[in-house]
Design goal:
alpha+beta, ten-stranded antiparallel sheet, two-stranded antiparallel sheet, globular, disordered C terminus, binds protoporphyrin IX containing FE, heme, catalase activity
């Protein structure tokens, strides 16, 4: 049965044919000379079969290789005209079809679904004005705020170039040298690092985006998806056991839950901040190692997402899905967060490598509204845009959000009446600087948010991985990062791995941190 969301060709019953559609009566037959002689080159059926098999694999994703996915619907439940002119968000009750892919990050495509890792939570929202991708994780913060560190950090979780083994020294060597990662490490080594399936966890944009109105005004926005089933987690022991017994636990439980008629659902919320509030905020809003406290910036519900349809064909509908934070729609823009800015490039770049130049034409990626532009041809073109000229023509012009058949005429719907800030450089200055500000939110988790049982789980979860570190210097440096969060936290981990206690890492005071000035679009020192 074809999927309801994605048009993939595949009748349930059909005549067996070669790839050019010629019927074949015996799938296992290979033409050969006589009874025991060599095979014949003329046997297209056999060569077709083997040659296609030889080419079945496409590159796996360099990160987030292991995944699971489903289709469903996102409905907007609020009137959002006060903050954006995006047509999809402006109409209460409006629905869009979505495709979601969940994933682990570091492992290969055959790795265990219950590994301690953030989970990817990528959503393709098919609006009438283009596909809008939310390429989120299940943690509100991230390890880095300097995008140049991403390949280094990811390499520490891949295999050692010589031993071809994963290596705890590599992982903790990186983290100790880059202590801005500590907030994410607090979350990752709590039980949130091992969610109980993909459909019982929250999702977060992490980055700040800008949601605009026609008049050029905007709010900084972060998106949260909260699972109606709650954020269920596994203990370290349960996750380890499942990794051995059922490495596909996440894929299976998502599929079975939908198949059994219990579609998982998420409520969608946003946090917003005006540019003026951003200037007064204690943290830099372009730093995704920080959260925005809910007390100061309350969650506002905007919608609900339900996943009620399993793919009919995993490869076509999930593996070939190509998500990118740069697949945006009118009145939604990226902020100047340097990690987000780098991602805008990286995803389409890797898709062109993984899926080809025309990755947007694959059924799962193709927008529901017609695409009209001057891109033509290339390998595997399916949509050639007919006879329409391949340049900006006055004879058969494209409409630019105006009246049909005119280049200039009509209201230009998606034009903003006023422009916003000018971006000025200098954003790179402070990215690597670590100050006392970086330890406040991790400390709040340890001292205020967690109870005794959660603190103990954290210590034990860390210890089970950290005990694999062989190098003394790496061990001491990371213990000093934990001591900068809280001395008792560091001492408890040291005790659990049988290491001596260490003093806190020395960092600059919070008053020396570089602050964000939204009206200039630059960073300035306070
Ligand atoms: C996947 C790069 C940070 C979420 C990927 C892929 C690349 C990549 C190359 C593979 C895409 C594919 O082959 O289809 C980067 C870079 C980053 C970064 C360069 C920082 C400089 C982040 C952050 C988040 C995130 C901060 C979340 C807030 C995801 C997700 C996927 C992914 C969910 C999987 C998408 C899917 O299911 O197809 N990333 N990433 N990444 N990334 Fe990132």
């Amino acid at each position: 049965m074809p999927s309801k969301t994605i048009m993939t060709i595949g009748p349930e019953s059909a005549h067996y044919t070669t790839s050019n559609g010629a019927p074949v009566s015996e799938p296992y037959a290979a033409q050969r000379l006589g009874l025991l002689g060599p095979l014949l080159l003329q046997d297209f059926h056999h060569i077709d079969l083997l040659a296609h098999f030889d080419r079945e694999r496409i590159p796996e994703r360099v990160v987030h290789a292991k995944g699971a996915g489903a289709h469903g619907t996102l409905q907007i439940t609020e009137d959002l005209t006060d903050i954006t002119s995006n047509p999809f968000l402006c109409q209460k009750g409006r629905k869009a079809k979505v495709t979601v892919r969940f994933s682990t990050v570091g492992g290969e495509s055959g790795s265990a679904d219950t590994a301690r890792d953030p989970r990817g939570f990528a959503i393709k929202i098919r609006t009438d004005d283009g596909n809008w991708d939310w390429v989120f994780n299940n943690t509100p913060v991230f390890f880095i705020r300097d995008p140049a560190k991403f390949p280094h950090f990811i390499h520490t979780q891949k295999r050692d170039p010589q031993t071809h083994l994963k290596d705890a020294d590599m992982f903790w060597d990186y983290l100790g040298q880059n202590p801005e990662s500590i907030h994410q490490i607090m979350i990752l080594f709590s039980d949130r690092g091992t969610p109980d399936g993909y459909h019982r966890m929250h999702g977060y944009s992490g980055h700040t985006y800008k949601w605009f109105k026609k008049d050029g005004s905007f709010v900084y926005t972060q998106v949260h998806l909260r699972a109606e089933a709650g954020f269920r987690t596994l203990s370290n022991a349960e996750a380890g056991k499942l990794a051995g017994e059922n490495p596909d636990y996440g894929i299976e439980s998502l599929f079975e839950t939908i198949e059994a008629g219990y579609p998982p659902a998420w409520n969608v919320f946003i946090q917003t901040m005006t540019p003026e509030q951003a200037e007064q905020f204690r943290y830099n809003i372009l730093d995704l190692t920080k959260v925005w406290p809910h007390k100061e910036f309350p969650l506002r519900k905007i919608g609900r997402m339900v996943l009620d349809e399993n793919p009919q064909n995993y490869f076509a509908e999930i593996e070939q899905a190509a998500f990118s934070p740069s697949h945006l729609v009118p009145y939604i823009e990226p902020s100047a967060d340097p990690v987000l800015q780098s991602r805008l490039f990286s995803y389409p770049d890797t898709h062109r490598h993984r899926l080809g130049t025309n990755y947007q034409q694959l059924p799962v990626n193709s927008p529901v509204n017609p695409v009209a532009n001057f891109q033509r041809d290339g390998a595997m073109t399916f949509v050639s845009q007919g006879a329409r000229p391949n340049y900006q023509s006055t004879i058969v012009p494209l409409r630019y959000h105006g009246e049909p058949g005119t280049l200039e005429g009509g209201a230009r719907d998606f034009e903003r009446e006023a422009k916003h800030e000018t971006f000025i450089g200098a954003a790179f200055r402070d990215l690597s600087e670590v100050t006392e500000l970086d330890f406040e939110q991790p400390r709040a988790l340890w001292e205020k948010v967690w109870n005794d049982a959660q603190r103990e789980a954290y210590v034990q979860n860390v210890a089970s991985h950290f005990k694999g570190v062989k190098n003394k210097e790496i061990r001491e440096r990371q213990l000093s990062v934990w001591a900068a969060v809280d001395q008792s936290l560091s001492d408890r981990i040291a005790k659990a791995v049988g290491a001596p206690t260490v003093k806190p890492l020395k960092v600059k005071p919070a008053s020396e941190a570089v602050r964000f000035r939204a009206n200039l679009g630059v960073y300035t020192s306070v």
